[in-house]
Write a structure and sequence with these properties.
The chain has about 375 residues and is an alpha+beta fold. The chain is built from 11 helices and 11 strands. About 35% of the residues lie in helices and about 10% in strands. A hairpin with a 3-residue loop joins strand 7 and strand 8.
């Protein structure tokens, strides 16, 4: 969830990580337009919508339980690679994805029947050499106990059994009597996580735990709607300001791309001359500014200013906070002899109440960065 570029990593408490994960969950599941036709094999549209809403509530519960007693399950590694490097979270996300993807949903949608859990079974690498299971026995046991504590009923498997034995005669059956529709939502979002991701699926990106309902929609989701989901934990005035920036610059022809890999980002870049199409990856790499949300920095407006020399005199009229940040510029923290804070990404301004006091001046600044300004 958070990259690392040298130096000692200080792991954040699991409660902080849980709070961060919960902020990534949509505030609600909207009345989605047409869903992907392939989902009809799972359930009808209304049943799917109810199931996705139930799964969202379940993920919120998972985050709350992690915050309350996650330390009993999420053990820190000896040498963490980033500030949220709890292997248990990757185990949990991938185990849930396997349960949903490989599970056969009962006709009434109240049970998933499994005879295979690939992430828990040793495999062979490309050279035919035996490779251990992606989730070790101890990690699997922790996950199963945690899911049971969250209300899932897992029949046909002993969490303490180090050897996983599943078959047609001895399947794993997963139910959740207290949450009708949950397993339908898990099934749909697991298929989306495995097959319809907009970017490559990484082991430790925890994508399933964000309940990204937009993957189920037949038409591509509107970035403005996704931005509203992204902003929902912030004060109302900050949300209004961010939405105004989005509308102001997309109406002027800037392109917006959503990235949800190491951190959540809404990136804005100028369209290419000649009308050449930019794919989302290109928009992110060429972005002049972006909204971002990460565990390390929280919610920010990040400006990768490219024309500061051209408007140095005009910048003298901006608010002192902006003048100072523009004067400092941005660049690699390590080259400055400092610990990496992702300074190479741009000039970072927190999205908090203070930003609304300089909202108009930020628009002026971004106007200076617009092509042809």
């Amino acid at each position: 969830m958070s990259g690392h570029h040298g130096g000692t990593v200080t792991l954040r408490p699991i409660g902080e990580v849980a709070a961060y994960l919960k902020r990534r969950i949509p505030a609600c599941i909207p009345q989605m337009p047409a869903l992907k036709p392939a989902l009809q094999q799972i359930a009808g549209e209304e049943t799917l919508r109810t199931g996705v809403a139930a799964f969202r509530e379940f993920i919120c519960l998972i985050c709350d339980r992690l915050a309350a007693d996650g330390a009993a399950y999420a053990k820190p590694p000896a040498n963490p690679k980033d500030i949220a490097d709890y292997p248990f979270l990757s185990y949990l996300s991938n185990l849930l994805a396997d349960i949903g993807y490989y599970g056969i949903l009962s006709e009434g949608g109240d049970a998933l029947r499994l005879t295979n859990l690939p992430v828990c079974i040793p495999a062979a690498d490309a050279g035919g050499k035996a490779a251990p299971a992606r989730i070790p026995a101890a990690g699997r046991a922790d996950c199963l106990r945690f899911l049971a504590a969250c209300g899932l009923v897992l029949t046909g498997i002993d969490p303490e059994d180090k050897t996983l034995r599943l078959s047609e005669r001895q399947p794993l059956v997963v139910t959740c009597p207290d949450r009708p529709g949950l397993l339908t939502g898990l099934k749909a979002l697991s298929v989306a996580d495995m097959e319809w991701r907009p970017s490559r699926r990484f082991w430790n990106d925890l994508y399933l735990l964000r309940c990204d309902y937009s993957l189920l929609m037949q038409e591509e989701a509107d970035p403005g709607d996704l931005l509203a989901d992204f902003l929902h934990p912030l004060p109302a005035e900050v949300q209004t300001f961010a939405q105004r920036l989005h509308q102001r610059y997309t109406r002027r022809g800037m392109l917006c791309a959503v990235s949800r890999r190491a951190e959540d980002q809404f990136a804005y870049a100028a369209a290419r001359s000649g009308g050449k199409t930019l794919i989302p990856k290109d928009i992110c790499s060429r972005a002049v500014w972006r909204f971002s949300h990460s565990l390390q920095h929280g919610y920010c407006l990040v400006v990768k200013a490219k024309r500061m020399n051209e408007y140095a005199a005009a910048a003298a009229g901006l608010a002192p906070l902006l003048r100072e940040k523009i004067a400092l510029g941005y660049g690699c923290d390590c080259k400055r002899g400092e610990r990496c804070q992702r300074g190479c990404q741009g000039i970072r301004i927190p999205l908090d109440d203070a930003i609304t006091g300089i909202a108009g001046q930020i628009e002026t600044w971004l106007d200076y960065e617009m092509p042809g300004a």
